[in-house]
Write a structure and sequence with these properties.
With 144 residues, this protein is mainly β. The chain has no helices and nine strands. It folds into two domains: 50 residues, no CATH class; 82 residues, OB fold (Dihydrolipoamide Acetyltransferase, E2P), CATH 2.40.50. It is 0% helix and 40% strand. The protein has a five-stranded mixed beta barrel with strand order 5-6-7-9-8. A three-stranded antiparallel beta sheet has the order 3-2-4, with no helix packed on it.
């Protein structure tokens, strides 16, 4: 008998902190030590697009934010860039560091999404890849 359990793989290794027992994941970003600007995802090059200095450091970002906007997509987009289930919701979240990120939302009912609502980071399945592994990504869900 074979092992039918699916392996979980990250969409990208540098989007959130590693899994550690007892610690909830956090998004990984960059901060410019010269001007104070934050970035997500973290910058690969140590160069700030705002002040043009080489003063970026890796930081973890807040786990909670505010829902700014969202859209519910009812059909599979063209081009094959999204492989997850339909319908789905995505939109923008403001993080405490002052940056706005684009994200998918994890909800049981789309009516739970409201502009201005507090949301929290979760890691969950996006889709299955060609090797039949579960691809994990970050999403935000409303805080009740």
């Amino acid at each position: 008998m074979g092992n039918d359990a699916k392996k979980q793989v990250r969409l990208r290794d540098d989007f959130w902190t590693p899994d550690v027992k007892g610690e909830k994941p956090k998004l990984l970003g960059s901060k410019c030590e010269a001007c104070g600007e934050y970035f997500f995802p973290k910058k690969e090059k140590n160069w700030c697009v705002y002040c043009q200095t080489k003063a970026l450091t890796d930081v973890t970002l807040g786990r909670e934010g505010k829902l700014v906007s969202y859209s519910v997509v009812m059909q599979q987009p063209g081009g094959g860039f999204y492989k997850g289930p339909v319908p789905y919701a995505y939109g923008q979240v403001d993080l405490p560091e002052g940056i706005r990120i684009v994200t998918l939302f994890e909800v049981d009912n789309f009516d739970d999404l409201k502009v201005g609502k507090d949301v929290e980071l979760v890691i969950s399945k996006l889709c299955d890849n060609e090797d039949n592994n579960e691809v994990l990504t970050f999403k935000f869900r409303p805080i009740n």
